[in-house]
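go over my protein:
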Amino acid sequence: MIVQLIRRLVPLAVLPLTVLAGGLAGAPWLRAFPGDVLAVPLFGAALLSVLVPVVAVRVATSRLWLTVLIDAVCFVLYTLVVVLKNPTGVADLVDGLVHGPAQVLTFALPLVSPPTLLVAPVALCWLAGALAGECVARGWTTVLPYFGWLVAFGLAYAATVRAGVSNAHDARLSDTWLAVALLATLLLLRVAQSWLRQDASAESTQADGVLPLRGLAIGIAATVVVAALAAATVQSAAFSGRTTAPQRVPSLDQSRPLSPVAWVAGLRPVPPTAAGQPVFRVTVDAPSPAYFGIANVDYYDGDGWTFDRRFRPSGGILPADRDPALDVAGPAVVQHYRIDRGALTSAPWMPSLYRPQKVTGTGVNIDPDSGMIVPTVPLRGGATYTVRSNAPTPDFGSMSATALPATSAPPIDTQLPGALRVALGKVVTAFADESGTPSSPAVPFLQSLATDLRSNYALAGAPAKASASPTPTASKTSGRGGEPTPSATPNASATTRPRVGGVSFADVLASVLGKDRTATPEQYATLFTLVARQLGVPARLVTGFRVPSDTVTLRPGTYQVTTADAWTWVEIPVRGMGWVVVDASPSSYSGAQQQLTGAAQPSHTPSATPSQNALITKANGGHAVAPKSQVPRGHAASRGGLLVAVAIGVAVLALLVLIGMVWRKQRRLRRRRRLADPRRRLLGAWQESLDVLSESGLPDLTSLTSAEVVAVTGARFGEEPASEAELLGRAANAAAYRPSLPVAAEEADAAWRSHATLRRLVRRRLGVRARLAAGLRFHRGTVPARGSSGPASWSESARDATRTRRRGRIRGRHTR
């Protein structure tokens, strides 16, 4: 009973196993895409690609070219509606097929946007599933679908092997189990197909009460051996290394050096209290910091701030900070940006909150180390995009004095020019005296310093003119302990030009420590950063926009940001909190005129003259961020990589399909010609002729008599093929209906010669297209019963003769 139940369930398992194999073959793509982005399109393709040909063959047509066309149309519709979600996005579909593979290889993983990145994985999954669906629908037991699944799995694995994982050993182990699951599924599917063919075959001798387990046992052993060898090989030490450099470094436009610090400072109106021009509108869905950065800089050489970044194309997702201590706990903040016409449309920057996790709506290039993002193309007026971030909301001033800065931050965040350390030491001492807070421990001192700067200093007003030769004179005002207080008196005759973002050490001291104690946000942030580094606390300068707010954090809502909100601040890494914002700039403006240089300095500084605006990076003409990055499309490698691999895979699959179509017909012919019994060999020649006629355009002839076959052949192909069919039909009738009449080997050979003549005559009467179609078509008529290869009536006669001989043998044994 159990065996019979299993046999009844085996046919029902073929289709689910086929779908499961397609899903497992495409599963590695989930390492490169978030599950909520790719799961539905990918596994939907694995399901529909199998069902479409099955339904098409059983409901509409059995012609291969027509079902392939239906497959292609369904793929296009599915991709437009489900994957791209744009029914008219044919251009995006073509772009995804042409450029998507190269983008998958070059974009930083994981991927999320643009949606064209999904096209190539879905297309590969659909191709493998469609091939399997055709074979299942037509009852083919060829191994071509297995090659298709294995190629799809291999390409998916190769394209996603760069995905960052926390534990390489666990990743290799999960990959091994996924491969084992795929091999096991293919094994079960092959066994199920073999059982179905064995049950339907006329040559089967398997008893109904016994399951053919030999093939299953061999397959299981082979699967275990292959999986064990693959696991041992992949997890060996030979594959444990890590890459030391990106596979590709996007080319950067060096023609327009631009400092983000100077650019932001230049946005503020003159006078700075005037109304600014709209820059962007942002909507936040949760309480968030009021600081939206465009860039963070970390290298200071005494003259200005620069950075050295490697921006890589990204699918819109940034990996987490490499230091787990800087992970920000709490709910994510989703920001929706709408860019106004103006400043951001002519610069390679884009605002975001803290370290973005996910960016949708526009292409971005990323620097995974710093968390900085830049747009791949300049933002346009009216452009929109969405950013999700886990932003820290604690205020640095309200933090506990026992809070610990994350000393695991990059060394560049504690770097200082050696010539500045003596001078900075005196500045720290002066501020400690002024605030009454010792410089150690560092966190309370920095909190006191930020409060002191906000309370006792002011923002610089509009620049003015004075004399051209600055003559610094030190102030004699004394603080605690007789040390000079942070004060200076510039020569009133100095002349200045309008200046923004002058952040050289001389400029900073001349402004912040001058007589009027006025400076720009960039200068206050520079001074605070240098003091923090002097105390061994990592710090970096961040520039962007500050949204005015009455509270420490912004409430959920929509805010209009203008050029008057352009701002610069400091970020300090704190364990368990991430990079915490420190804004040491005052909130009130001074009416005093800001000077270019000239102030008492604690010691000699490396910059005695006004500095120029800092370049975006060190050396080589600035290495500015490319305002328009088209690396995935413009680089020569865009025609290589995964695109070449996919093209090769498709070509290999197509070649295997063609080879399989030709090979299975030759295999069928050889099997029939090599039968040892002359009678069965003669009947095989007749059955081969019937298949050739059906493949050449005639309907299924298996159930017709030989006379009917001759008539149909003559009407379609002429008198000569009909004569050969008549000779074959007579010989086959004699062999089938007169089992007691011996059939000589010469008669079987003559039948096969007649078949060859019939085949040649039929092919001559076909056009080129029909001849090619006949060569690829494989006829599967009604499978005759055991002992026969002719019409159904022959099957009954042959079966009766077999039963008669069997009864005679049994009766003879009983008589003896």
Notes: The chain has a mean pLDDT of 76. The radius of gyration is 40 Å. The first strand starts at residue 108 and ends at 111.
